[in-house]
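so the lab meeting is tmrw and i was supposed to have these ready like two days ago... anyway. pasting both below. for each one the top line is the aa sequence and the line under it is the structure tokens. i havent really looked at them closely yet so no promises
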Amino acid sequence: ACMLCRQAEVDPDIYGRKLEKQGLCVHVFCLFFANELFQQWDKNVGLMGFLPVDIQRTIQRAAQKRCFVCGESGAAITCQETGCDRSFHLPCAVEGGCITQFLPQYRSFCWEHRPEQAVEAAPEENTTCLICLDPVEDRKSYSTMVCPACKHAWFHRGCIQGQALRAGISRFQCPLCRDKDLFLMEMLTMGIRIPFRLPSWENSHADMALSERHSRCDASECLCPGGREQAEEEGPWHLLLCCSCAAEGTHRRCSCLTNSTASWECDSCA
């Protein structure tokens, strides 16, 4: 288990890969977010530039602090707000409503002092998440977020985090208006982790995993006898995901596509 968050099985896309050296075992981002732990200019020394002796001191200090979320000791991250002493483990951040900014300085905030979206917008009645299609809350919140550019794209925090991991920094954009710059900076500020890599759907294995995440036909009228969840490997009932956002799907026949059509873009992205 990681000696900073005390978790063994966590998502490496969010918390970074596990580093093991000189008797130490830590996740990459547990290092970056830990209090008073600084990276050296030479990234080849220690663990990615973090000196083992400094990591040991941080572990010892964290042992004296309890996570305000789970109640266990070993909380190495403290809210950046002056005077606030709420500490937590990185994997406990979401459950505690905390925000960890995956940007240089790697700042963290508790639920009380976290940044809020400044854009003035409220979802209309019965608004659903553009990604999972489930209802969103009736206002902005930690869990319900909105695009700061178009102010019409609403989504759950967990859903847009999943989209960020699939898209990577080069293709991450608002799933509705496709704004990139304002949207990306807002999401980073609000604690969304956006990896510096190519989109996962550019390789077939990731594309297969992506299909498992969204597996229903979103056509206004689904014609498939087996229903929206039915999907076949070939033919008219083969399910295509949007080639831009991968957040919507359609059977070929439900969108008047030929059986040879291999790529499709949803109305939001077209």
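ok protien two:
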Amino acid sequence: MMGGTAGKPILGAIEGDGLDGVAVLVVRYFGGVKLGAGGLVRAYGGAARDCIRAAPKAFVKSKVQLAVVTPFECLGTVYNMLAKHGAAAGEEDYQSNGKVKLTLTADADQAESLQQAIADATSGKVQPTLVATDES
């Protein structure tokens, strides 16, 4: 049994393109003893490299969810801060006490500054809280 003829060259192709969070599947229909270990390494690594180079790529940023309960009169201010920080509002729940409950989605690297900006812009009346991250 040969070792390291598939996983290492495929991982090398992935790392060689500076990627992470990907999966590469290579199916072997022919080879083994006839190709030898060196031939298998070249076959697996080459197939993975060709596929990775041909595949479309997309940069994906980690996201977080925040919860906000805001007085109705601060709702416009909250939405302005969302726009400035590239965040989005999800579900809105208008409550009988004159407040609005919002679920927000923001880039993880912008969440803290968004929380601070909303608190500052509303003079502390609105304090967003972290609900979930991509990892949770």
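from a quick look at the 2nd one: Helices lie at 7-16, 36-54, 75-84, 111-121. The chain has a mean pLDDT of 90. will dig more after coffe
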